[in-house]
Structures are given as C-alpha cells and as structure tokens.
Amino acid sequence: MESMHTPQRSQSIRVSASVMCHPARADAAGRVAESTGLPLTGLALDPEPDGPPTALRSARVAFGAAARHETTHHLVLQDDARLAEGFAGTVERYLAAHPEAAVSFFVEWGSRTATLARWAVFTGAGAVPVVNPYVPTVALALPSELSAALGRFLAEEAVEGEPDDREVLRFVRRTGTPALVAVPNPVEHEELPSLVGNSGHGARRSVCFAPEPPPGTDTSVLEPPRPLPHLNWTTGAASLIDLDRDVPEAHLPLAEALATWGAEEAGLAAALTARTEGGSLGDLVPRPHLASVWHTAVANGAVLESRWPGVVGGLRDRLGETAVEGALATLVPGALRTLVDAAAVEEHRSEVVGLTLAALEYGAEHCPAPKEAL
C-alpha cells in the first residue's frame, strides 16, 4: 500500500472542544459535551436563535472559542454527533500524527471522500484527504490558532446563505491547510431533525463508524489514484471523476468508463441479475438505481485491483473485521439514500454486503483499470 506519513511533533497535544448548537438543542449538545472525555469542552450556542436557519452563526462561536484556551488544538462537534469509546485518545493520536492539518472524525457514507475511506479500510491506511466540495464539519479539529482564525473568517468573510462546511473548505484552501478524515470514523451522525434545511439530504451516516478504537490503528494517509468512481446521491448518476481535473465537464459516465476498461454492458447486467436473483434488493431498489450502484462498486473494484493488487481478493476472508464489513455495508444505502427507502435497504445488511463485495470482485477480475488511468 502506498501511503504518506507526517512527522510527529514532540510537544504534547492538548485539545479543547466546543459543541455547536441552537439553544433548542442545548440538552442534546450537553450530552455530547459530556461524552468527549475532554475536560475543556463547552457549548457554542447560536447567538441569534430566531434568525434565518444557518449553522454559520454557531460555527463562528464554536471555532472562535479556541482563543479562550491555551491548547494546541480545538475540536468542534455538532449536537447530533455520537462518539466512540476512547474518543479523546483517538483525537489526540490523530492530531499528534497530523498536527498542522484540519482533521475530520466523520464523513458521510454517500460522499466522494467516503469512497477513499472505504479504500483506506481495505488497504490499512488510517486517514484520507478530503475530496468533497466541502470539509465535513460534524466533528472537526484544527490547530488552535487556525481555529480562532476560522472563527474570525466566518464572522467577517463568510457568504450569507452558504453552508458552513463549504466556507470551511474556502478557508483551508486559502490557508493551505491539509484537510483529512480519520478512518474508521470515531463519530456517528444521529438522525435528529435538521434545523438548517438538510432533511432532504436523507440519512447522513458514517461511512465506517467504529464504536471502539480498532486495534493497531494506523494514522498514515492514503494516496488516492486519479480515477474516483462516484454515484451522485442527489441525481443517481454514476460517473468517473478525475481527481487531477475535477470539473463537471471532465466527469465521464461510469458505464462508458467501464466499457473502455473491458466491461461490456451485457456482462455487467448478467452478473447483476445472477447476484440479485432470489434476493430482496431487486424488489426494494428499482433496476436503474441498482444498475448504477452495481456499476459504481464494480468500478471501485477495478481501481482497487490496479492500484493495490490483491486487496479485493482478500476481502472475503476479512468479513469478520468490523471496519471491513461496515465499509461494505454503507456503499449501497449511502449512494441511494434519497432515491430509495434506505432504512428498508439497511434491513438487508448481509445481502447488501454480499452484493457490494461481489461487485468489487467482478471489477477486480474482469476490468481492472489501466495503469495509465491511475
């Protein structure tokens, strides 16, 4: 596996934290604060609770709170976060390994970065770069000085009406701050009613939540290849994104990309039919959506086999690993959550895992991505 290590600092890591929330959810935020294991944890209440719905106001308070503490890093959590056992230790370990980075401890299961997170689970890496058009902010830590600067940025330069996570991306790009996600995620996102209009986004669960710290956690960063297969959870369109040229006009329809790699549509369709015959997913998911998610998983297997030969072939023997099984279980409901009944799909978890693994194996065997595409 190819990965990158960041030298560790000799100084000890000291972390303060804020839980951002609307006053109406102060009780929930208080429970999150109590569960962090970090003594310097407080609430960051929306200063204008009757104003237009937005997370920006409480985010500004939360990140700016770093200035009140003499710590190396400041962590901001949202009030609908659920934290794993040993959360404080996990946070400190990642920040010691990547002291200059913005580190997210959650990424949702249908995002671009979620694909990299699955690859990290499969290959053994402990973190991935953020490749979303935003920085995940459910649980985000930064060096304290940068956190305070981000608070000022959100107060002085944030675009009204923009989501806080997109403004954070603008800030980290301006400051040249690496943005990473810890894998597996030590944070799960609870499904509380959205106060800022995100209910239409469907369930936003972790790509691979680990309720306990996994043994021997690595903090190295996955170095992704250029091609990223992605199923857009808002449109259902499956495409191949070139991470070196990530502009809409360069996105290639995934079926077209697979054809150039040697996977013919007839073969893909026959393999999908054989895999779903007699199961429940064919009744729960309309065939076009099922084909799109099948193509996406097949393309994942194709890229994995070319970049990390043998990794896909070893997954069937690793189904007993919580992180591996979890990563396989989230691709289908994460990608289709606004298009089908994701809760009903999740009730058939073993079938979802089997379908996803079969698709990865098909891609690895029949159409590995050409080396020049990587």
Alpha-beta classification: alpha+beta
Question: The CATH topology of the largest domain is what?
Answer: Spore Coat Polysaccharide Biosynthesis Protein SpsA, Chain A
Largest sheet: 7 strands, mixed
Radius of gyration: 20 Å
Strand order of the largest sheet: 3-2-4-8-6-9-7
What does it look like?
By secondary structure, this protein is an alpha+beta fold. It has 2 domains: 220 residues, Spore Coat Polysaccharide Biosynthesis Protein SpsA, Chain A (Alpha-Beta Complex); 147 residues, no CATH class. It is 40% helix and 15% strand. It has 13 helices and 14 strands. The strands form 4 sheets. It has a 7-stranded mixed β-sheet with strand order 3-2-4-8-6-9-7, with helices on both faces. Strand 2, helix 1 and strand 3 form a beta-alpha-beta unit. Helix 11 crosses helix 13. The longest helix is centred in the last third of the chain and has 21 residues. The radius of gyration is 20 Å and the shape is globular.
Summarize it.
Helix content is 40%, strand content 15%.
List keywords for this structure.
2 domains; 14 strands; three-stranded antiparallel sheet; disordered N terminus; 13 helices; seven-stranded mixed sheet; Spore Coat Polysaccharide Biosynthesis Protein SpsA, Chain A; 374 residues; alpha+beta
Write the layout of secondary structure elements.
Elements (H helix, E strand, L loop, with lengths): L2 E2 L10 E7 L4 H10 L5 E5 L10 H9 L8 E6 L2 E3 L3 H11 L4 E3 L7 H12 L3 E3 L9 E5 H13 L7 H12 L3 E4 L4 E3 L31 E2 L4 E5 L6 E5 L9 E2 H7 L4 H12 L4 H4 L2 H21 L14 H15 L5 H5 L2 H18 L8
Parallel strand pairs: 2-3, 2-4, 6-9
Antiparallel strand pairs: 1-11, 4-8, 5-10, 6-8, 7-9, 12-13, 13-14
Helix pairs in contact: 2-5, 4-11, 8-13, 10-13, 11-13
